[in-house]
Design brief:
Rossmann fold, DUF3492, six-stranded parallel β-sheet, D-inositol 3-phosphate glycosyltransferase, alpha/beta, 3 domains, 13 strands, 547 residues, 44% helix, glycosyltransferase activity, transferase
Length: 547
């Protein structure tokens, strides 16, 4: 089948979130054909180029969400009236005290049809008309109190955010030879990433699937803490309504864990359409460490990850101070670096705290002391890989106060290491009963759990072996690919055929899609299908690349 893969800030670019997962999915499902529709996250990402693409990727079309040049489209009077009507209706839904899903969908799809008919909405979404429509909605009777309190700077902020979020409406992807030519759309994230799939469903009846390993609505709440109440309220209403409409129209929604699933169901996802599919990870790099538990230093704890305030390394350092009182020989290795200036500042703070809590200890007046806490990064001779970091320690520690799916813990589980973690995000779901879990921001409990494992090597070995078995059963690439292969087949089996199959000469091919092909179920071999002429002979527009 032909799949339209929708991505944002990741595949097929060299650097990007979720890129590795998409690449493994495409390579694992090599019996299908993929068209990639990608949003880039910045100029630097575009300059870095793409990863090598496998032959099953037939087409790549890209668009930047981080910028949008004026498209030169000038709307006539009738088009301006249509825009004012639909945008005003959208703004009214965002300001209303009670969410109205049908009104939101009508307004959103009305804007999409206007963009398709007139050639784009970039200028209209940036116009004074849009800001005034938003202002009228905020001042209208029945609007929420937080919306009524919006001032001009708030309205400008919200209008600019909506302009960016609605840029996919102006793309030329929604044609018969674009997303109209695929058998299904698979959005690798929710929110704006899934919007082209929603529009392909509206225009052509293409079924679509949404995979979320991090719920975009939750991310919105976490990343806008400094905005005014009016801005937070209006943007939360937009993202919540978009998520609800996306979940309602999707054939299936596949969260990466139960934590994400609860968010999706709270936003309106039908339980019957939600299938939890754990992210697949390559277990091969961790095999040697997992099969050699004796290589671990019994007096070493390790933390591995990206350094940022949400990881709460301050609590970990205070917990380690208590651990050292019970087990003076213990060392702590903090492995990882910051990803942004905020993380760099936090790393500096943690280094200063470690120096204060653990002054360098020297055996005599003429020897150099050593701090029991080390801050390291992978890539050097002493620590070439993350696997080496996990393999060096008896216990892996996670101290986060905010966490989605704990990929680092799963890596430690592949290595057969016992873990001590805080109860956040999907931690409990990932480790099951194979590790110790303590409340977040509780250094005393974290210290007690670590000491208990440091003093009991047999228990560490049992937990490590159980963790490795659980990871190999649930979190491998093969498991992930098999799950999506079955979901793809189920979606297509439920969807009536839209195009008559053709033979090699372009003539109709009778009985190519027999009736039993539409019966839900799993099949050992796919039904043979001829490659239609449009798959190889369609002219390539300047904005796309065919491989």
């Amino acid at each position: 089948m032909r799949i339209g893969l929708l991505t944002e800030g990741g595949y097929p670019y060299v650097g990007g979130e979720g890129g590795l997962w998409c690449d493994r999915l495409v390579r694992g499902l090599d019996r299908h054909e993929f068209d990639v529709y990608a949003f880039s996250s910045g100029e630097a990402q575009e300059d870095a180029g793409w990863v090598p693409l496998p032959p099953q990727v037939g087409r790549v079309r890209t668009a930047p969400l981080w910028t949008a040049e004026a498209d030169g489209v000038v709307h006539g009077r009738r088009a301006r009236r249509r825009f004012s009507e639909h945008y005003g209706e959208l703004a009214a839904v965002l300001c209303a005290a009670t969410p109205e899903a049908d009104r939101f969908a009508t307004a959103l799809l009305g804007l999409a049809e206007l963009a398709r008919d007139e050639g784009g909405l970039v200028a209209a979404l940036r116009s004074e008309t849009a800001v005034r429509a938003l202002e009228r909605a905020c001042r209208a009777p029945g609007a929420r109190r937080t919306a009524r309190e919006a001032r001009v700077p708030d309205l400008l902020t919200v209008a600019a955010h909506l302009e960016r979020a609605l840029r996919p409406l102006s793309l030329d992807w929604y044609e018969e030879d674009g997303l109209g030519a695929v058998d299904l759309c698979h959005a690798a994230a929710g929110g704006v990433t899934a919007l082209p799939g929603l529009l392909a469903h509206h225009f052509f009846g293409i079924p679509f699937l949404v995979t979320e390993y991090g719920v975009r609505l939750r991310t919105h709440y976490l990343t806008r803490p400094d905005s005014s109440p009016a801005v937070r309220s209006l943007l939360a209403a937009f993202h919540g309504a978009l998520a609800s409409e996306t979940y309602r129209r999707a054939a299936f929604v596949t969260p990466g864990n139960t934590h994400a699933r609860r968010w999706q169901e709270r936003c309106g996802a039908d339980r019957s359409k939600v299938r939890t599919v754990y992210p697949g990870m390559d277990a091969a790099p961790f095999a040697e460490a997992g099969e050699s538990p004796e290589t671990a230093d019994p007096h070493t704890l390790v933390w591995v990850g990206r350094v940022e305030p949400a990881k709460d390394l301050v609590s970990l350092l205070h917990a380690f101070a208590a651990i050292r009182k019970e087990e003076p020989r213990t060392r702590l290795r903090i492995v990882g670096g910051p990803a942004d200036p905020e993380g760099a500042a936090y790393l500096g703070h943690c280094r200063a705290l470690a120096a204060q809590l653990f002054p360098d200890e020297a055996e005599g007046p003429h020897s150099v002391g050593a701090n029991p806490v080390s801050f390291e990064e992978t890539g050097g001779p002493d620590l070439p890989t993350r696997t080496a970091a996990y393999a060096s320690a008896a216990v892996t520690v996670l101290s986060s106060v905010v966490e989605g799916f704990p990929a680092g813990l799963v890596e430690a589980m592949f290595c057969g290491r016992a873990t001590v973690s805080t109860d956040v995000g999907a931690v409990v779901e990932a480790i099951g009963g194979t590790g110790l879990v303590v409340p977040p921001r509780n250094p005393r409990a974290l210290a007690d759990a670590c000491v208990s494992l440091l003093r009991d090597p047999e228990r560490r070995a049992r937990l490590g072996a159980a963790a490795r078995a659980r990871a190999l059963e649930l979190f491998t690439v093969d498991q992930n690919i098999a799950a999506f292969h079955g979901i793809y087949l189920e979606i297509v089996a439920r969807t009536p055929a839209r195009r008559l199959p053709l033979d090699g000469t372009g003539a109709p091919l009778p009985f190519a899609a027999p009736a039993e092909a539409h019966v839900p179920g799993h099949w050992t071999e796919p039904t043979p299908r001829a490659v239609p002429t449009w798959a190889t002979q369609t002219p390539v527009p300047a904005t796309e690349t065919v491989r």
